[in-house]
Amino acid sequence: MNFDKKFDRYDENAHIQKIVAKNLINLVPDKWYDTIFEIGAGTGILTKNIITNLKYKNLLINDKYFESKKYIEDLISVNFIEGDIENLDINKSDLIISSSVFQWIEDKDELFKKISKSSDTLIFSIYIKDNLIEISDHFGVSLKYLDMKELKTLLTPYFKKISGYEEKFTLKFDTPMDSLKHLKNTGVTGIGQTNIKKIKSYSSKKLTYKVGYFICEK
Q1: What does the CA dihedral 185, 190, 195, 199 come to, rounded to 10 degrees?
Q2: pLDDT tens figures, 20-38
Q3: Burial group, residue 196, by CB count within 10 angstroms (0-12, 13-18, 19+)
Q4: What is the dihedral of CA 68, 147, 212, 140, to 10 degrees?
Q5: pLDDT, tens only, 144-176
Q6: Where are the domains positioned within the chain?
Q7: CATH code matching the domain that covers 9-129+144-168+210-217, chosen among 3.40.50.300, 2.10.109.10, 3.40.50.150, 3.40.50.800
């Protein structure tokens, strides 16, 4: 699976991502934050929720793709940091937050370690095991999604207090092709390199999303 820069079509198709971002914001303690650092802003779905719902002085926004900047540069008190978070230093922050991003991280252990050196609090959502199972069952490809227990094991060396929960969403479509178009327009092609016969034989009219939410404190 791979992520394509579908920013121009992302917002209108990112139905689950918008719900997840709102759910994530509801997990953030209601207090003053001097600095908040968001990892993987994309088109600013979580960013706008942060601005609307949280109290802060500085908001640092990161994304791997420079194109993301045009979606958030006019927002209030936002500083954009371009680059792959796995290769960047992370500013000292009261809160590090991320939604629907960490499933793409190659070395999650190293990222969690780096985050723990920059903040006492990490709150994030991530797609977990059995996410988009219809795609993996038919095409035989998938990201290496972890389950909640595996993620907690990775987080435990760096955070003393870890809590969270998982949630399942099912999207239904008129045709199987509509479901594949939905994935394409949200950037997750899901099928990699495959032949047209495999695409035409895809028969599911639904997609299952499985999401994990985590609140981590040192």
Answers
A1: -70
A2: 999 999 999 999 999 999 9
A3: exposed
A4: 50
A5: 899 999 999 999 999 999 999 999 999 999 999
A6: 9-129+144-168+210-217
A7: 3.40.50.150
